[in-house]
Amino acid sequence: MKQASLFIQLLLIFFCNALFAQKHPYVKALQHHPEAAAFVENALLQQKVMDRSGTNRLDSSAFFINYVGLDSTRIGYSLYSYPDAYTTLRTNYSFNNTTVVWEANSFNTTQYDALNRTILLEQAYLNNGVINIGFQVKIFPRGNSLVQLDSVTVRYNSGFDVNKDYTYNAADDIVQYRNYAGDVSGNILNVSEYNSSYHTNGNLERVEINQGPTLQALAPNQRHIYTYDGNDFTFLTENYNTSLSAWLLTGKTEVIAGPSEQKITQRSSYSYDIALDSFLLNNQTTYEYDAQQRPTSATNYFDPHGGPGVFPSISRTYYNYLQGEDLHHATTVNIDFLTGDETVNSKEYYFYKIVSSTGQPLLNADAVKISPNPATDYLRIDAGKNEIFAVDIFDQSGRLVWSQSVDHQPVILKNIQLHGLYTLRVTTQNGVACRQVLFNE
Predict the structure, then answer these.
(1) What is the Cα–Cα distance from 281 to 57, expressed in whole angstroms?
(2) Which of 199, 198, 250 lies closest to 221 in space, CA to CA?
(3) Average pLDDT score over residue span 334-351
(4) Sign (positive/negative) of CA torsion 3, 118, 161, 281?
(5) Residue 356 and residue 362: Cα distance in Å, rounded?
(6) What's the rounded Cα separation, in Å, for the pair 368 and 384?
(7) At residue 137, what are phi and psi to the nearest 5 degrees?
(8) Is 47 in contact with 112 (CB distance < 8 Å)?
(9) What are the Cα distances from residue 159, in Å, to 30, 35, 36, 152, 184?
(10) Ordered domains of the chain (ranges, CATH)
(11) What pLDDT does residue 22 have?
C-alpha cells in the first residue's frame, strides 16, 4: 500500500508540475529546491480541488488495486477533514488482515495562513501507535509578501535541511540563498550556496552552486543553464558538475509547452554517457489536456538502462472529472513496453460533500423550522439541537439585506421590513441550512 501510495504521490507531483509551472510565486521562489517546490505544487493542487470558497469540498477517496469494477475490493481509503479555517488533513487508512479492521496509517497535512499562502506540508506515518514525521516542509513568507520568503525548512525522519539567508533583487527574484544540511542533532554537515543570474527580461539565466562542509570551505560544484522559447517558457536546462577544476556536462532537462505557455505537454530528463558520448533518456512524462485545459492523462516513461532483457517501465494515469474542475477518479495503468497493452494497476475515487459559500457543510432544509411562512414583520427560527450562531437574509440578486448574530434559540426576528421572496441562511454549530421565505407587508 505504501509503495502504491508513493507511486500516486509521484504522479501527482508530475501532474502538479504541469498545472502550476510558472504560475504561482512560491514555485518561482523555490525553483532552487525542486523537492520542496514539488510539495508546494502538490499543496496548491489540493487547495484547488478542495477550494473552500466553492460549493464542493473533498470528503473522502477510495483506493483500489487491480481494479476490475465498482465491486472491486478497496485496499485503502482516505478521509479529508478541516480542523480549522487554515488546515486540511488527509487521513489514510489500510485494512489490517490480522485484526480485521481498518486502521489509520499515514497523515498528510497542509496549512495556509490568513493570506492563503501555503506555510506547511507534512507527511506523517503511524508506526506501533507512534506518529513519525516522514517529510515536512515549513515555509516562512517575508512579511505580507506573496513572493519573498524568509526561509524554508525541510525536515526528514533522518535529519533536517534548512534554507535561509534569501537575497532578492528589485524584481523579487532570488539572487542568492544558502542551504544548511545537518543531522538530527543539529550538527551542520554540508553548506550549499546558490547564486543566480538573470536575463534582461527577468528570466533565470543560470544558477551556480558552491558546496562545502562549512561556509568558509565552499567550492564550485554545480552549474545549471536555462534556455527559453519565444513565450519565455523554460524548455532546456543543462546541468554541469565540476571535476578536477573542469566543468562537465552531466545531464539536461527538456520541456515542451502546449498551446498555452502555462501547460506542459512533455518533460524529458537525460543523463550524459561519457563512454558513448551521447545523452540517454532516463525519464519522460507526457501530458494531455481537454478543451477546458484540464489535464486528462500523464504518461511516465522510465528507462533504467539495465542492459539486455531490462525494459523501460511505462505507466499512465487518466484523470476523470465531474462538471467543472473537481476530480471524479484517477486510474493508473501499467503499459507493456513490447505490446503496448494496458493493465489497470490502481484506481482512486474522490467523493465530495456540498458546502455553503462560507465553507460550512449544508444541512437538510428541514433541519431548520421557520414560521410563519409567508411572514410579515417577524420570523421564528428553530434548529432543534443545532445551536444557531447567525442568521442572514439575501434578496434574489444575492445581496445581503439582513444579518444578525445570535446566542440563543429559538430565534425570533422582529421588525423585518421586507417584501417579496428572500433566501434565509441559518448558520449552526453543525453546518448551514438555507430556506426560501416570502415576506408580505
Answers:
(1) 40
(2) 250
(3) 88
(4) positive
(5) 6
(6) 7
(7) -120, 120
(8) yes
(9) 20, 15, 15, 15, 4
(10) 2-354 (2.40.128.720), 365-439 (2.60.40.10)
(11) 32
Four-residue CA torsion sign, 306, 310, 312, 313: negative
**Inter-residue contact 165 to 149 (CB < 8 Å):** no
User: What is the rounded CA–CA span in Å between residue 256 and residue 267?
Assistant: 7
Q: Which residue has the cell 543543462?
A: 238
Q: Which contacts of 29-33 are long-range, i.e. CB under 8 A and separated by 24 or more positions?
A: 29/147, 29/148, 29/149, 29/174, 30/149, 30/152, 31/174, 31/204, 32/174, 32/177, 32/194, 32/196, 32/207, 33/152, 33/154, 33/163, 33/179
Cell of 159: 535529519
Strand arrangement, sheet containing 378-382 = 369-371, 378-382, 411-414
CA pair distance 18, 42, nearest whole angstrom: 11
Sorted by sequence, the CB contacts under 8 Å of residue 370 that are 6+ apart come out as 379, 380, 381, 382, 424, 435, 437
Kind of pairing, strands 219-228 and 204-212? antiparallel
Report how far residue 265's alpha carbon sits from residue 268's, in angstroms, rounded to the nearest whole number: 10
- 401: buried, middle or exposed (CB in 10 Å: 19+, 13-18, 0-12)? middle
Residues 6+ apart with CB under 8 A from 413: 378, 379, 381, 391, 402, 404
Joined together, the cell numbers standing for residue 215 give 561556509
Contact 370, 437 (CB under 8 A): yes
Q: Is 322 helix (H, G, I), strand (E, B) or coil?
A: coil
Peptide bond before 410: cis, by omega within 30 degrees of 0? yes
Amino acid at 432: V
Per-residue confidence (pLDDT) for residue 14, from 0 to 100 = 32
Distance of CA 184 to the CA centre of its chain: 27
Tell me: the pLDDT tens digits for 51-87?
444 456 677 777 776 555 555 667 788 888 878 777 8
105-120 confidence digits (pLDDT tens): 899 888 888 777 778 8
Give the pLDDT confidence score for residue 160 in this predicted structure.
67
- Can you tell me the distance from the alpha carbon of 132 to that of 58, in angstroms, rounded to the nearest whole number? 25
> Cβ(249)–Cβ(241) under 8 Å?
no
Q: Where does residue 70 rank: exposed (0-12), middle (13-18), buried (19+ CB within 10 A)?
A: exposed
Q: Is the pTM of this model over 0.85?
A: no
Rounded Cα distance, 135 and 158, in Å: 10
